[in-house]
Amino acid sequence: MQISLEEVIKKFPFYRVRLKKGFFWYYLEHNPKLPRVERDVRYPLGRLHPNLGKRFLFRVRYWQSRIAIEFCHVLSDGTGGITFLKALVYDYLKRKGKNPGDPGDIPVDFMSGEAAEDAYNRFYKSPLPLPDKGREAFHLKGKLLYPGAIMITTGIVPMEQIIREAKNYKVSLTAFLVAVYIDALQELQDSLVSRNTKKRPVALQVPVNMRSIYPSKTLRNFSLFVMPEIDPRLGKYTFEEILQVVKETLIIQTNEKAISKSLSRNVGGQRNWAIRIIPLVFKRLLMPFLYTRMGENLCSGTLSNLGLVRLPEEVAKEVERVDFILGTNPINKTGCAVCGFNDKLVINFGSNTRDKIVERLFFTRLIKMGIQVKIEVNEEIRKGKFKD
């Protein structure tokens, strides 16, 4: 695995970087070191080493037959991460004496140019109207686990069953899952707050692969969020009403003109001279406030659908399952990541609190719809096998 990693990272030079502090901004520079494969630990997605100036912004870990990669969002998004993982697995199988066959869309040569471009700046337009600020959303309560701990609740469902249910409602799989998640959060808030006038919006961040909107082949980070939400002050929403809101939001907010406002806001801040001349030491004081005020405070959680992971036939024979997991934050506390492989859809909830009520409400809804769900919890499947 170490040999494969050293070979594959040469093909992705834009990942062979480290984060450095400048006088005005953080910046990425080439890292002359080689990344090292690490043994997996009990809790994934732990904080990267504080000394980022010497470390990579990703990890490769292993345990028995499992290969895991963890990416910092500064470096890439789900599309870039899964592409790198495919290349790593393909090279590893070859070195183990397997015959992985034709690589298909798996990169096997040196990548630069389009794959390394900063697509945010490429498609930035001159200042546009800012997105609506929004209201502070409903957030889960509960005591946080100790730093670095993450509880993972996994639901494995037959792809055919859940796709059929989404089609029955005439919506996409992503819209269906987002609606189930919002409905679960609505029920939770109803149990905690009786007066409608005191209730907060229930909103979910849904990452959008910007490559589906703009003609870019970058493997660096190129994603933004749309945010379907309901306003419980208006009364309880039926599941069908939630589906309608989600369906319309995903159509309207992923329109190129609509999402360009978010792109303009994100890139415009870097180009604004009044902001550029502020020393980094002062920017760092403002960043946590802006991150909370303009991001996490406005949503109740995140649902990210990586989609169906496709592998060449000979490679797929060697792969049992593919998982996708999101990191957590102290405000939202829980996030949902989804990916499909072969005939199974894997739904992972990552949480930094022991309270599993949202996960229970979510999967109970699927079961009541007649969808079979196999549940796993990382405390059970990893107990006694890993060091903290």
Brief characterization of the structure:
This protein is of the alpha+beta class.
Write up this protein:
The chain has helices at 2-11, 78-95, 119-122, 159-168, 173-192, 239-252, 256-271, 273-276, 280-294, 313-316, 357-368, 378-381; strands at residues 17-21, 26-30, 37-39, 58-63, 66-71, 151-158, 202-209, 223-226, 229-230, 301-308, 334-341, 344-351, 374-377. It is globular. The protein has twelve helices and 13 strands. α10 (313-316) links the parallel β10 and β11 (334-341). The strands form three sheets. Strands 6, 7, 8, 9, 10, 11, 12 and 13 form an eight-stranded mixed β-sheet that branches. A three-stranded mixed β-sheet has the order 3-4-5, with helices on one face. It folds into two domains: 2-118, no CATH class; 151-381, Nonribosomal peptide synthetase, condensation domain (Chloramphenicol Acetyltransferase, 2-Layer Sandwich), CATH 3.30.559.30. The model is unreliable at 380-388 (pLDDT under 50). It is α+β, with helices and mostly antiparallel strands. The protein is 34% helix and 19% strand.
Please describe the biggest sheet, giving its number of strands, its sense, and whether it closes into a barrel: 8 strands, mixed
**Whole-angstrom Rg:** 21 Å
CATH superfamily of the largest domain: Nonribosomal peptide synthetase, condensation domain
Helix content range:
25-40%
pLDDT averaged residue by residue = 90
Tally of extended strands? 13
The helix tally amounts to 12
Strand percent estimate: 15-25%
**Which structural class do you get from the secondary structure elements?**
alpha+beta
CATH class of the largest domain: Alpha Beta
- For the record, the CATH architecture of the largest domain stands as 2-Layer Sandwich
Q: Helix-strand pattern, N to C? A: HEEEEEHHEHHEEEHHHHEHEEHEH
CATH topology of the largest domain: Chloramphenicol Acetyltransferase
Number of domains: 2
Overall body shape = globular
Distance between the termini: 23 Å
Low-pLDDT stretches: 380-388
